[in-house]
Design goal:
2 copies of one chain form a homodimer. By secondary structure, the first copy, chain A, is of the alpha/beta class. Chain A is built from 12 helices and 18 strands.
Chain lengths: 357, 357
Amino acid sequence: MSKIDFMRIAFQLAKKGLNKTGSNPMVGAVVVKNNKIIGRGFHAEFGGPHAEVNAIKDAEDKGFSVANSKMFVTLEPCCYFKKKTPPCTQLIVKKGIKEVIIGMKDPNTKVNGKGIGFLKKHRIKTQIVDYRAQNEKLNKGFINLIRNRIPYVTLKICLTMDGKIYNLKKNGESIGDLFQLEHANLLRKEYNSVLVGINTIINDDPQLTYRGKEKIFFEQPRPIVLDSHLRIPLKSKIINLKNSPIIFTKTSSSSRKFKALTQAGCKVVTMSALEPQRILRKLSSLNIQSVLIEGGGKVFSNFLKSKLWNELIVYYSPKFLGKDGLSVSHYLDNEFLIDNKEIKIKKIGKCFMLKIS
Amino acid sequence: MSKIDFMRIAFQLAKKGLNKTGSNPMVGAVVVKNNKIIGRGFHAEFGGPHAEVNAIKDAEDKGFSVANSKMFVTLEPCCYFKKKTPPCTQLIVKKGIKEVIIGMKDPNTKVNGKGIGFLKKHRIKTQIVDYRAQNEKLNKGFINLIRNRIPYVTLKICLTMDGKIYNLKKNGESIGDLFQLEHANLLRKEYNSVLVGINTIINDDPQLTYRGKEKIFFEQPRPIVLDSHLRIPLKSKIINLKNSPIIFTKTSSSSRKFKALTQAGCKVVTMSALEPQRILRKLSSLNIQSVLIEGGGKVFSNFLKSKLWNELIVYYSPKFLGKDGLSVSHYLDNEFLIDNKEIKIKKIGKCFMLKIS
């Protein structure tokens, strides 16, 4: 097998950490001896051992010595202390691995080449097999956290052709069709968290879960609700499902509802104003690396205006609601120009999707 | 050259009749002897000679005899009297043409196989070289007139992503960009007429002309304005350009403005109500085979609801106008579902286009 083959396998392993690594990156590693894989590992839990540690342990558990082996790892091994686990570069040196092949430098300034430097200093060969594009896609949340100190944000909404989000005459009727709903649900798989406004909870009582293939192996996204006055019903599905909901509110922590929600397993965060920037900063401190914002109109407009989003996904359903519909821009006081470079379009059933990034 | 090659050349000739044939189809013909083209013709003017007549005349003008030749004609030759020109099948028989190769049966029930029958009866070989798909596209207006007794109707509109057609704070600012405007202008080349509401004339004073390549060889579409109270300024560009504007109004023909407009070269039609069905029926009697409806919102909504359209083209511009914008569905009282089968999407500059048919 070629270097690219081993790196591809390491990358497949990295993906297994999807939504399990908190604010950490997803990383995979394989240990190779005599052109055969003797150990596999990935970063499986925030605060838990890194991919390199797991791959070495896997090899040793199977009775192999990793001395003089090669390690393929999708992201540069870490090299600093004062964190939850000891630096991987030290372990690599200690175990006598002779070469480390790396998919991408760690953009975290605490590493960013220093890991490679440490290995070189200890006479371990290093090489980059460029897996940056794949890493940037998989770890978009982690990378955005490092670069902008807020999670990766995707704004998603489904509109009629005349820009309406809600049929005022047919409460609760979905704007999209089944194909669109399935496609939109699939998105949730790629995000740490799903954010909605309180009206969405009150009107629709959604689960905010991923319900596609392999859902049982999957760490569900954390539901996030913006709820100024803590109107969320304690019987809401998102509370009963216990996917660690986060509720942002202006209501004091001394209120009875605040306490009841906390007791029910919610993380309730009180802020003087529910502004996108403050919410996103808070989410990064709660180890959220990516947020899928699912509306409704008020939440959508506020985040759209904030410009703090990375991606905008708009589904259009082939109908006009006319005066029967509530406009997506009901809460948008001013014109907003999209000046992003990349616009992709795709048909989804009878709907079509715009992806702007 | 093969039969398909000759038919292709006949079809190229047919296209030269674009917007010149009134409610007649565009038809092209070539006369072939010893595998060489000796005559070319197309239908160039409503009420003028047909393609077959012109092709025979072209051959004879060049000194050829058409006896024992083959004729390739894109549409079945006509065979009935009581129209502006004598039937082509008679001429074909009289001139001793030995074989006629036809691109498509004429859907007009007065012909529809009867032309072929007449030729066969006179021992002229006939054959179909299937050019139906191309004909249906080129002659969509004519075919729609025959089938539905109204012109082919395309609804065109440019929206912001939130379904707005007009920036209330920046009067006259275009919703689309230059690429979109160019693309939309190109559409006009394919239509006999362009229809707008009076507010579009008053607000924008448009020319409603095709301004692309080869515009000087091109028969401009007739401008059509829906103007209940004859508010159209006599100085409007569409009046000065003298492309035979048609104005639909509820104002009596005895009014001073009615007379002034008629004197200025407009066809003014008075109706008790400007309903899509009545307007389109009237247009078919005025030899209009296709209409591009360019809005604004009120006209768009009325024709959308009427379901009398064949194609819907919506451009989306990458911006949200929010409360600054007038919604396309401001005049749409009820939900309208698009149940058409075919939806195409395309990027046009930074905009994207939906084509529903």
